[in-house]
Design a protein that fits this description.
This protein is an alpha+beta fold. It contains 2 helices and 2 strands, in the order αβαβ. Keywords: Signal.
Length: 56
């Protein structure tokens, strides 16, 4: 029974931390923004300065 409780708690902790992963791991400023690279602009992914995970 203790093993099941430990497994459930561990799963809950892992699921909670997975939601805090951010989309961009690159170089962002203190506000979470950055300029698009030339390669990203060519692919049409962005057009200039933009934010990742901006707090509203």
């Amino acid at each position: 029974m203790k093993k099941i409780i430990v497994m459930v708690i561990s799963l809950a902790v892992l699921m909670g931390t997975a939601s805090s992963v951010y989309a961009h791991s690159g170089r962002t400023d203190k506000n979470g923004g950055h300029n698009c690279s030339a390669k990203s602009k060519q692919k049409g992914l962005c057009t200039g300065y933009h934010y990742h995970n901006k707090k509203k």
